[in-house]
Amino acid sequence: MTTHPILRNEENLSFINAFGIDGYWIYDLQKNEIIFASSLLIKLFGFDYLKINAIDKALKEINLNKTALAPYIEYFKYNKENKSGSINYITSAQNKLHFHLNCKHFTHEDGTCYLIGAHSEFNNEEKYTRNQLVLQQQFERYKFIIEGTDIGTWEWNIQTGETVFNEKWADIIGYNLEELGVTSIDTWIKFCHPDDLELSNQLIEEHIQGKSRIYDVEARMKHKNGDWIWVHDKGKVVSWTEDGKPEWMVGSHQDITDKIIAREQNKRFVDQAPIAIAMFNKNIEYLAASEKWISDYNIKDNHIIGKSHYEVFPEIGEQWKRDHQEALRGKHLKSEGELFLRADGTEQWVKWELKPWYYKDREIGGITMYSQDITVAKKAEEQLRISEETFRNNFENAAIGMAIVSPEGAFTKVNNSLCEMLGYERSVLLNLTFQEITHPDDLDKDLTLLKEVVNNQRDSYQMEKRYFHKNGEMIYIVLSVSVVRKADKTPLYFISQITDITPRVKAQISLRSTLSKLESIVNGSTQVSIIGTDADGKINLFNVGAENLLGYKKEEVLHKRSPEIIHKASEMEARSAELTREFNRPVNGYDVFVVVANEVGFESREWTYVRKDGSEFKVLLTVNPIREEGQIIGYVGIAVDISQLHEAQTQIKTLLELKQTQNERFSNFAYIVSHNLKTYTNNLTGLINLFVRQNKKEAENKVLKFLVQSIEGLSDTVEHLNEVLTISSENIDYTKITINHVLKSSINNLGMNAEKADVRILNKLEKEYYIKGINAYVESIFFNFISNALKYRDVKKDSYVEISAEELDRYIAITFTDNGLGINLEKHRNKLFGMYNTFHKHAEARGIGLFITHNQVEAMKGKIEVKSEIGKGTSFTVYLLKA
């Protein structure tokens, strides 16, 4: 058979070698069929692949098992990760073949997608002569090949104990078959070293139990001359009894004494080496490791010999594994430094070298690895690099101006921020000294401080000073200067950090002006009460407006009284009780005005003010804390007289009551109209039915049909009008509604929208559910929730909206779940169902849908619950009365 192109891929070959011990096939996902099968799999299906047309027949027979393959084909429509499981085939002769199947997805460079199915753990439920013949032919062919080598072979019937050795097997231990006489499993036991026999039996048992693909052991055998020799013994169960027990096991026997001696010599060298070195076999399993290796890698396991390097270090990356394989092919590899990320998250830098080690006959026996932990040196080197790079980046990219200044005062290096601050090109600024751009009034202080640094009286200084901008304007700055000294303590250069505080200085000048103006405003507000207090509640500000509104003179209250004197006692007591419950602690006296402002920054609330003469009036009072360096030092309360506003509210209430009366009259009128319309539509329907019965030929008349449809539409409209009118009634006459029917209708209506939005609508209703309510409202509710899921989908996801239902004691709970954008409930929960509230930028968002839906649900005595998380999706659950 020819090699299929995808088998030229190294990763695919490794997959087949690892899992395809009993054959494999290649499945073309575009053609939807198996297009290639290995010779071994073809044989297990009962075909001789060397015969004409046998391959085509075998492929056809394997493809007949599409039902068995279906779960794997379906899985790879949506996934690319490998999948494994059991599979049963039925041949044309009705033989049952059982395998463990490992499946791998592969996309060829031409874009074609394939599956590779690797088979292992073959077992059929009956013994078939044809399969036994194939097995025997295969064994004879391998036996012929083996006879030309130095490998002994053995065959062992596990059930009967019958054992067959070839001549080379006997020759390895110094005998011929005739000398051995009648052979059995006891022959092996007789010559095997007792210490190795236990391990051999354990490995055979593990293989029979399916824990290992093959039986593989190195053991000592007693030679005829009395010496112990080492052999490499390998085998595999090749047939099973009808009741599933292992029958025949075959294997090989190879003298590896010279290899063991060479390996032991290398191991002794490794064990005694003062450097970090380890020795591995071809499976990258430890043969030896020096103490330095153990300590450098902090290996806690005292028994790593025989274990896989990848078991000891599961964090080893794929590149190192490829390097190991390269060394096994004879290459000498090394690295001057490579990062090894340990499983515990620590970083270790390693300098390493890989070499193959050889037996006497120059056969590669494994690899040796030399390593040196250079983590300390690497970290020091990295810290130095980071330090230099950090200073350079901080210097160049600092938001403040920075300069390196010579002892003579010349700029030797400046950053972009300083150039922009002063308006000079870099090349121009580097030809200036700091003395030339400093305001004359500030220069003496600067030079005095600098001289103290030069004389070792200080290492740094800071001052506020003024620079001249290129355009002549004044720049206010904070200058911080530090020194870098030579070994003799004389200055090498100065590092200057220049912060532009011009806006702050100008703001201070402006603030002083503003404060003066504010003082005039406070005293000029004759109809707005502005009262200030200290932190304890004593009044320290009482403006003219407060005097006018309350009748007190400021001299009567300043530093003497609390604002409690102008408040209604009953209101303060009620507010105290309310705040005590809210804050779970006593809130009394002056605290009732400021406790909320302390928490959230301010509080606006209606209060009743009491004038000096005892009269009362309503105000809107806003209280703000006054802070200084984060500490509250007092409060200011600004109050506006809203008495007239309250009068207006009273008038509005009267108008609303009048409007309500008019609405009730309109509702009665609407009832009469709807009732009369219903009577007329019923009469029209009866007349048309009578006409059709008397004139049956006219039943198919298009005009008559259109008239019937129009009357039916009018009748439905009247029905919906009646339903809407009943919303305001306490005794709504609900109808029995089938949820499943309404949901299917909504899904059909939104089908095109869902397809356009690439959103899957999943109907998860498992049975029929019945509610009582208004059909038009239920349709509207379903429509709104599903259409919202389409609007606010996450375009980066495979989007869906899922509808499910659950029957409770009083309600049917219908849940609409999507994986869309989600809503910030912590921020928006209280206004979620408000009118004109939107929570995402969307062209069709109007903020009315959830408002209508909420009112419709409440009109039917239901409720809505919502769960949502930004970036994960939203779940609305609607509770409607059960029919």
From TrEMBL:
Keyword presence, Phosphoprotein: yes
EC number(s) per entry: 2.7.13.3
Domain PAS: 138-211, 387-457, 514-586
InterPro entries with a match to the protein in the record: HATPase_C_sf, HATPase_dom, His_kinase_dom, PAC, PAS, PAS-assoc_C, PAS-like_dom_sf, PAS_4
Keyword terms: Kinase, Phosphoprotein, Transferase
Catalytic activity: ATP + protein L-histidine = ADP + protein N-phospho-L-histidine
CDD domains: PAS
GO molecular function, one term: protein histidine kinase activity
Cross-referenced Gene3D superfamilies: Histidine kinase-like ATPase, C-terminal domain, PAS domain
Pfam families the UniProt entry points to: HATPase_c (PF02518), PAS (PF00989), PAS_3 (PF08447), PAS_4 (PF08448)
Domain Histidine kinase: 672-883
Domain PAC intervals: 215-268, 333-386, 461-513, 603-654
First-tier enzyme category under EC: transferase
Protein name stated in the entry: histidine kinase
Organism: Lishizhenia tianjinensis
